[in-house]
Amino acid sequence: MYAIVEIAGQQFKVVKDQKIFVHRLQGKEGSNVSFEKVYLLDDGKKVTVGAPAITGASVQAKVLGHIKGDKVIVFKKKRRKGYRVKNGHRQALSELLVKNIVVSGPKSTSKPSFEEVAPVKSAPQKKATSKVAVKKAPTKKAIANNYSKMTVAELKALAKEKGIAGYNTLKKVELITALSK
Q1: What's the pLDDT tens digit per position in 107-145?
Q2: Best label site of 67, 100, 130, 141, fewest CB within 10 Å?
């Protein structure tokens, strides 16, 4: 059996008789502590997921001692500037021994049954009205706008199809004016 529990703002996967190191707790050495924020329980047969936590479940542990973690060195440097700063710290930790995972009271699961989910009502659909759109013949400005969206290579290909002489030496603006005539 294992559980996922929140201890001092972090989530841990714990098993009975497991030793874990967590951020420093307020309890004294040898005291018993209990954590109620159990998010998941697995007893080997059934997995229970809380929404967000399982009500009635808790993890009981014993504080074995307060220690300092390994030294962490923080070195900052900016090259070619002569800037070097060396800092370090040792994290304050508490060593816990998980004594028991208690499951009592109602259990809540994150997956609702099908009866709990209300059916989604769709909005009434509007009736489509048939409007006939009359297409107007494109004006010279509209054709020029279409040419301005084209690349130079596409414009040169059109100029070649229309038989415009000297299209290779023309710039984009000149190609557009020659094609729109």
Answers
A1: 444 333 323 334 445 555 555 555 555 566 656 555 556
A2: 130
96 and 30 share a domain? yes
Predicted structure pTM score: 0.53
Sheet containing 83-103: which strands, arranged edge to edge? 19-23, 83-103, 57-78, 32-35
Domain residues for 166? Answer: 140-180
If asked whether residues 144 and 69 sit together in one domain, one would say no
In this structure, the answer to whether residues 98 and 35 fall within a common structural domain is yes
d(CA 172, CA 144): 12
Residue 122 falls inside a structural domain: no
60 vs 16: CA distance, rounded Å: 9
Angle between helices 172-180 and 152-162 (to 10 degrees): 40
Question: Is residue 125 within 8 Å of residue 47, measured between CB atoms?
Answer: no
For the CA atoms of the chain, what is the radius of gyration? 37
Predicted confidence at residue 113, as pLDDT, reads: 30
3-state secondary structure at position 118: coil
Residue 20 and residue 33 in contact, taking contact as beta carbons nearer than 8 Å:
no
Query: Would you call the peptide bond into 52 cis, given omega within 30 degrees of 0 as the criterion?
Result: yes
Q: How far is CA 28 from CA 7, 65, 74, in A?
A: 16, 8, 31
